[in-house]
Design goal:
The protein contains seven helices and seven strands, in the order βααβααβαββαβαβ. It is of the alpha/beta class. The strands form three sheets. A three-stranded antiparallel β-sheet has the order 3-5-6. It has a two-stranded parallel sheet with strand order 1-2. The longest helix has 26 residues.
Length: 219
């Protein structure tokens, strides 16, 4: 795979199925393609990941049942105050993503950005073995099966993540595919279900509402 050097190049699509079931040469080629895309573009679409289509469909169905619940029911699992813990339900406008490009733009610009409401709601789940990020669950009778399904989904996705980490390790030249896995137990990840309720286009045009503006996930 050749990654264009144009900064506006499209995000690569990489099918990893042959890396999971093919030959050693297949695995090495896909590993190199994946590492190249990560190095030069920073993002990549993964296909052929082995996650069953039935699981994906059920994930969307469970997510819809969650966000269709009345507000008071969703608030039975409220996101903890502040930004240190990412668990539970966040109502539209609770989370505000805004960021200055450099220190000189802090202050008034960030304050102005924070006046614009982020119109999205989310529910975040993680490992039950993470003492610093304790899960916040809905009562079982509010959404039966939600906890067990999302817990199983979390670890199913991490199983795929393990394979991707192995491929990246190989792709960057390591002879030990488990190299990166030593830094990823699976307990520090985050599964986020997201819903963007409909809003008037005029609210976006007048900059009184937005979805999730451009940002980075580090300070």
């Amino acid at each position: 795979m050749t990654v264009p050097q144009d900064s506006k190049a499209s995000i690569p699509i990489i099918d990893i199925s042959r890396a999971l079931t093919g030959t050693h040469a297949d695995r090495s080629k896909i590993a190199k393609d994946l590492a190249l895309a990560c190095r030069h573009v920073g993002f990549v679409y993964i296909t052929g990941h082995g996650i069953a289509s039935e699981t994906i469909k059920e994930t969307f169905a469970v997510s819809k049942r969650l966000f269709d619940l009345p507000y008071d029911d969703k608030m039975k699992a409220p996101h903890p105050p502040g930004g240190a813990v990412h668990r539970g339900y966040s109502y539209p406008g609770q989370e505000k993503v805004s960021q200055a490009i450099n220190d000189d733009e802090e202050g008034s610009q960030v304050k102005a950005l924070r006046q614009i409401k982020d119109c999205k709601e989310s529910y975040e789940v993680g490992s039950e073995n993470d003492p610093e990020q304790t899960n916040v669950w809905l009562p079982e009778d509010t959404l039966p099966g939600f906890r067990s399904f999302t817990t199983d989904l979390y670890w199913s996705l991490f199983a795929t993540g393990r394979e991707i980490l192995k491929l990246i390790s190989r792709g960057i030249g390591s002879t030990d595919e488990d190299y990166l896995l030593r830094f990823h137990s699976g307990n520090g990840n985050q599964l986020r279900l997201l819903h963007y309720p409909p809003i008037p286009a005029g609210d976006v045009e007048r900059k009184v509402a937005t979805r999730m503006p451009a940002h980075t996930d580090w300070a």
